[in-house]
Each structure stands twice: as structure tokens, then as C-alpha cells.
Specification:
Structural class: alpha+beta
Oligomer: single chain
Radius of gyration: 20 Å
Strand content: 15-25%
CATH superfamily of the largest domain: Regulatory protein AraC
Order of helices and strands: EHEEHEEEEEEEHHEHHHHHHHHH
Strand order of the largest sheet: 2-3-10-5-8-11
Helix content: 40-55%
Number of domains: 2
Largest sheet: 6 strands, antiparallel
Distance between the termini: 22 Å
CATH architecture of the largest domain: Sandwich
Length: 298
């Protein structure tokens, strides 16, 4: 069987099967040991929300084809449809991971506040928190480990765990709000449109390359959508679409055993020639050459 046989999906059921997990209960899984954390490996498409809190040392992971190093005092947010692979935990690493279903996120903080902020500031998926907030997050980690031990659970144990998760999210939201405060009503409206656009974009496993596909579903013109995206993020809607499409292409070429033609068809390109031209124009190589380079790259 090919080592590139299938790109797996990491959903909450993946981790609910881990017998050594600190805690698991209907959409919530807490992991803390290095062996447990290595289960969050790729190549895989994430179908849940994953929050990594590094309390000591550092680890490295590829998210959306970019290498990210998370060190002490950092928090990494992974969202549904993120692509992850090749994680490395350096000696001395300590931390914990929350794996949360979308339903739990909605239950904990109405409006998905933390994750909406993360979508807006995609280039800042790693949050460098203040020393004061870091101390609080470390304490939340200790508290989670204490409250999630099987022998210490009570009839209201789940609600206690949810309360800790709510508090942790609020701490991170406060941290983001201080960095990205928005006081202007027009700016808030732009943010809502941009977040809804990003939700549509990342929500589809096969992404339309036409701005009009997204603007039609958001009930605005393509020009208005691109203008608002530019004002909020510094990039047009077309720029965001191209980034995600190219990311999916690279991921499929590197890890899937699908043929070039099959990838082209899966991603709704009209024909193989158009797909090859699109890849060469935007990534500098033919699909075959790019696949070879990606698989040789360490």
C-alpha cells in the first residue's frame, strides 16, 4: 500500500478512543502526555477545534503547509479544515491540549468568539500571551488535570470542566481584544462580513475559485466583498481564495495517492491542462514536478 494512501480526518471520535486521555466526555477530550499528543499528527484535515497550551519547552508542527514553532507561553489554535502534519516535541516539552467539538464551542461561549477572532487573524494562530495570562492558563491546565481524573469526578463533573473551558476561552478573548480592539461600528460590520466569508471559504473541502460564489451567498456584490476584505485584512477576497486553494493543492500533491488528473477533477478544474497551468503560474512548477519536490522536502 502506498504511504500516501489517504489523508485522514481528525475528529472528536479519534481522541475519544484514546484510553489514556485525561478526560473524554461527549465532545471534550483533554490530552497532556507526549505520547497522547503525538496522536495529533498528520497528514490530516482537522474537523474539530484544538487548543495547544505550551507551559514549558517547545514543539513544532506544520499547519496549513507552514511550519510553526510553539514555545513556552504560547497558545496555538487549530480550526476545522486546517491541515496539519509533521509535529515534533522537543525535550522538556510540557503542556496540554483541548480537543473540542464545534457543539462544545457554541455551548461554552455563544458566538464562537475565540475561534471567530482566530479566523480573522489567521496569520496569528499562535497567540503570545502576557506573563500574567500565561500564569493563569498554566493554573487552568493544572485545574483541568485535577478535575478530569476519573476518581475525582462527581455528578456535576462535566459542568465543572465546561466552566474551566469557558474561563480559559474568556482569558484568551481578553488577550485578543486588547491586541485587536474594535470601537467603530462600521469596522465591526466589516469584521462580521469578513468572518462570514472566511467561514464559507474554510468550510468547504472543495473551494470555489470564484469570488462571486461567496458574495452571492453573503448577499453582497463581489466588489463590495473584496473591498471589505481588503480593509479588514489588507488582502482581497481573491487573494484569500487563492491562498486556500493553493494550500489544498500542495497538501493533496504531497500526501494523497490520487493522480494529478484525479486531484484536478476533485478540485473542480475544467480540465487537466487548466489545472497544470494554474499550478505552474502560481507555484512555479508543473504538478508532477511540485509533487516530487514536496515529497522530497523534509
Amino acid at each position: 500500500m502506498s504511504q500516501y494512501a489517504e489523508i485522514k480526518c481528525l475528529d472528536i471520535s479519534t481522541f475519544e478512543k484514546v484510553s489514556s486521555a485525561r478526560y473524554k466526555d461527549e465532545g471534550i477530550v483533554v490530552l497532556s502526555g507526549e505520547d497522547e499528543l503525538k496522536l495529533i499528527s498528520g497528514p490530516a484535515r482537522v474537523d474539530i477545534f484544538i487548543l495547544f497550551v505550551c507551559t514549558e519547552g517547545k514543539f513544532q508542527v506544520n499547519v496549513n503547509m507552514s511550519t510553526i514553532v510553539v514555545s513556552e507561553g504560547n497558545v496555538l489554535l487549530c480550526k476545522p479544515n486546517d491541515l496539519i502534519d509533521e509535529n515534533v516535541f522537543f525535550p522538556g516539552f510540557q503542556g496540554y491540549v483541548l480537543c473540542l467539538s464545534p457543539q462544545i464551542i457554541r455551548e461554552c461561549v455563544p458566538g464562537d468568539g475565540l475561534w471567530k477572532q482566530a479566523f480573522r487573524h489567521r496569520d496569528k494562530s499562535v497567540i503570545q500571551v502576557s506573563p500574567e495570562t500565561f500564569k493563569v492558563l498554566a493554573l487552568y491546565g493544572d485545574l483541568l488535570c485535577l478535575k478530569t481524573r476519573a476518581e475525582s469526578r462527581r455528578s456535576r463533573g462535566r459542568e465543572a470542566v465546561l466552566s474551566i473551558i469557558r474561563s480559559l476561552q474568556c482569558e484568551l478573548l481578553d488577550e485578543l481584544d486588547e491586541c485587536y480592539a474594535v470601537d467603530d461600528e462600521q469596522q465591526r460590520q466589516r469584521d462580521v462580513l469578513f468572518r462570514n466569508f472566511i467561514d464559507l471559504l474554510i468550510g468547504g473541502k472543495v473551494k470555489s475559485r470564484a469570488v462571486s460564489w461567496y458574495s452571492d451567498r453573503l448577499f453582497v456584490t463581489s466588489k463590495h466583498l473584496s473591498t471589505m476584505c481588503k480593509l479588514v485584512s489588507g488582502r482581497t477576497a481573491g487573494d484569500w481564495i487563492k491562498e486556500y486553494v493553493l494550500m489544498d493543492i500542495r497538501f493533496q500533491l504531497k500526501y494523497s495517492d490520487k493522480s494529478i488528473k484525479e486531484i484536478s477533477e476533485m478540485m473542480n478544474f475544467p480540465n487537466l491542462s487548466f489545472f497544470a497551468k494554474y499550478v505552474r503560474t502560481n507555484l512555479g512548477d508543473s504538478p508532477t514536478e511540485l509533487r516530487k519536490k514536496l515529497r522530497e522536502r523534509k
